[in-house]
Model the fold of this input.
Amino acid sequence: MDKDKTAVLDNTYYQAAFSEENGCIRHIIDKKTGKSVCLGNLDEALWKLYFRDRTSISSNQFAAENEDKHFSYTLSGKELIMSYESADVNVKVVFVASGHYLDSKVTVANPREVVLTLNYPQKTTFNVDSLNRFHFPHDLGVAFKKPFYTAGHNSQSFAQGTYSSGYGDVHTQGGRYPNLFSDFVFLDSKDGTMGIYGIQPEESIFVPCTLCTASDPGRRSVPYYDHSFNTYVKPGEEWISPVLRIEVSTSLKEAIQTYCQGNGFKRTLVDKMKAEVYDKFRKSVLLHYRSRKLARGEHFTFKEDTKALDKFAEFSPIQMHISDYMMGNFDKQYPDMLPPNPVKGTMEELKRFYDRAHELGMIVCPYDNPTWFCEAPPAPSLEEHGDSVLAKDLDGDVVREYYYGNEGYALTFAHPILKKIRERNIKLFTQDLPSDIIMQDQLGARSWIYDTNPAAGVPYAYTQGIINIAKEDCEHVPLSTEDGFD
Done:
């Protein structure tokens, strides 16, 4: 088969050409400009798989004339189906062209060894000289320009802080989504525009990703975008990836809107709060009400805190965020938050603090953290249940975590024991203490880990567990969190 021949998906908005030899992208033309907004896959590899034993296989090892690693395709109207067959793994990639969208899914079947990472699409290149901006979901959003790539930088140059340790085996470089805030990038170029993003239905198990943009070390004039789905496919199993969409010849705003629509992001702040809380919330400022007698380093009591609330009455409505009430103090004995630390006072005295704050028109927002078990001293729940609720890495070991001198363990969020602990806490925070909002720390800031605790379901479902916590708890009370992802 002629290596230069291509299979083409063509419509009003773009032309996408793929190699007949191994299926890699040759170009994607934005028909508004008539130019190639995508220059193809670096190294002529559409995808690459990484196995648990740290070996890998990529699509450029397959060829139409190769019997051991055989590639074939069928093109029918607006659908292109690529098949890669070998003793190591079978892979199928299905592209569907529709309007501005080029949607694809990848099926991984019968691997010889556990597959951890699907690098797809691998290193999609673009023209650095035509680049206006490459939008990337770091921090609050960054836009990279030509000098970023010609100087040899990559998106990993910006260290992304995270709340997880002991990640396990992830083979591709890049920022992790989460805690990157979205699986969305957008290329704005004189050659055209192109958004690349994942679509994950709410009913499916969330698949974490790795995102990177860089320039090839030996060819800084060739920048690229690299995307990976992180999964866990055992020998004899079949796994189908989320939809990967390439959107061509639209604006950044339009692409963001279709990304949100495709992923079901519809709720606004008005939908998440009662009307009276929303009205106060939108007018309020947040005050972290953590009182301490500086001369002796002692906490004020709840009685003293309640009396001091009158000093802030003129600023109402105000969000009173409280965190020094907790049973074992900050980052101690989580997720057991209540009853309160006896140094501060009793549950009834804390309730009176709530009542006075509400009389003054304030919003009360306590701190909560359902994401890890702390020790030194250990949480009572940890002593009671041992390591049954703890996350286990790929080797079956518990996952240790360390934050500013405090130590503990990552959790298996789907474990029924942990769910009961959370239900107890939510009841205390809503029925015993009428909280207006709960600040659940780390839910939005945590990256993902592999968790092989049987209660997790599949080992890549860690983030799905975080999503479920937020979804279940917000049925009782509005939640806020640290950082956040879509």
Q: What stands out?
A: The longest strand covers residues 219-233. Residues 416-432 form the longest helix (17 residues).
